[in-house]
Write a structure and sequence with these properties.
The chain is of the alpha+beta class and about 300 residues long. It has helices at about 1-55, 70-80, 85-105, 110-115, 120-140, 195-200, 205-220, 250-255; strands at about 150-170, 175-190, 225-245, 290-295. The chain folds into two domains: about 1-55; about 70-185 and about 240-295, no CATH class.
Length: about 300
């Protein structure tokens, strides 16, 4: 009888100790997650503050072409429904979908917005390469011996603000230039992550190309995986083109919300086709397509 009592007490003590260990593990896990989230919040806040301080100290780049008002008047004579605000919206959305393509590997939306010539530019090739890497990483088996399984990109912060129409060219092919202040922040764990961070701070195409070469070199040499923050900021000029003589459809903004073929509502702002009838979705800004993107020196 005594032995049974002792055994029961020991069993109860063992269960109590086990539950105590489990509670300690759960508490430690929550504490670690809270610490990580707090660290991310502090990092984002500090980097954003530094970015704002740098922007405040940086003299503004030359703005709009002085001929722009006259060119707008001329364009509106041939295209009375042309609305510059639609181009400003196009520039912000283009920045968003390029960021999304690099983070998720989904190029469908940016291909819907971009002209074929965009993919022959430096940034077009860069977006395509980053999107391909994101798809490979997502599809790779969870093998600790594979480099692709040691790569991770976590989008943390994104902004595309202050769009401004600064240039317009008329002729057989119309061209409009919109300047956007762009900022993104990602946590990166990958071979060459630190070189990617250096590339993000580049202010010209030549320095971008040099930094990109360093990233490729580190990956090919199987450099050690390391964590880093990828912060990309600055002003960028987005060039949009359309055929000369094009006319803006005043109903295009409405047509971009509801399918004109079957009447179904598009499931998201970034949908490129109708989920019901598969018809291609028209863009609110008509035939304008992204042709190039260049950093402002």
């Amino acid at each position: 009888m005594v032995n049974g009592t002792v055994t029961g007490v020991l069993a109860e003590n063992g269960v109590g100790i086990a539950f105590g260990i489990i509670e300690a593990i759960v508490f430690a896990s929550w504490a670690l997650m809270f610490a990580v989230l707090l660290g991310i919040l502090v990092t984002v806040t500090v980097m954003r503050r530094r970015r704002l301080d740098r922007l405040a100290r940086t003299p503004p780049a030359p703005s709009a072409d002085p001929r722009l008002p006259a060119l707008l008047v001329e364009l509106r004579r041939s295209d009375p429904h042309f609305d510059p605000e639609l181009l400003l919206e196009a520039a912000q959305i283009a920045c968003l979908v390029m960021f999304a393509a690099q983070s998720t590997g989904d190029e469908q939306v940016i291909r819907h917005l971009a002209a074929p010539s965009f993919w022959r530019t430096f940034f077009g090739r860069y977006v395509r390469t980053q999107a391909r890497d994101a798809r490979v990483q997502r599809a790779a088996p969870k093998d600790p011996d594979r480099a692709s399984s040691r790569q991770a990109r976590l989008p943390v912060d994104y902004q595309a603000t202050a769009p401004e129409l600064i240039g317009l060219e008329l002729g057989p092919q119309q061209r409009a230039c919109v300047r956007v202040s762009f900022y993104q922040l990602r946590a990166v764990v990958a071979p060459g992550a630190r070189a990617q961070t250096a590339m993000a701070s580049a202010t010209s195409l030549s320095s971008l190309a040099v930094s990109l070469g360093a990233v490729v070199g580190e990956r090919l040499s199987e450099a050690a995986t390391g964590p880093s923050w990828l912060s990309w900021e600055g002003q960028y000029d987005l060039a949009f083109i359309r055929p000369g003589g094009s006319h803006t459809d005043p109903d295009a903004a409405v047509a971009s919300r509801t399918c004109t073929t079957c009447g179904a509502t598009y499931r998201s702002e970034l949908a490129t086709t109708c989920a019901n009838c598969k018809a291609s979705r028209p863009l609110p800004w008509g035939e304008w397509r992204l042709a190039d993107l260049t950093p402002v020196e």
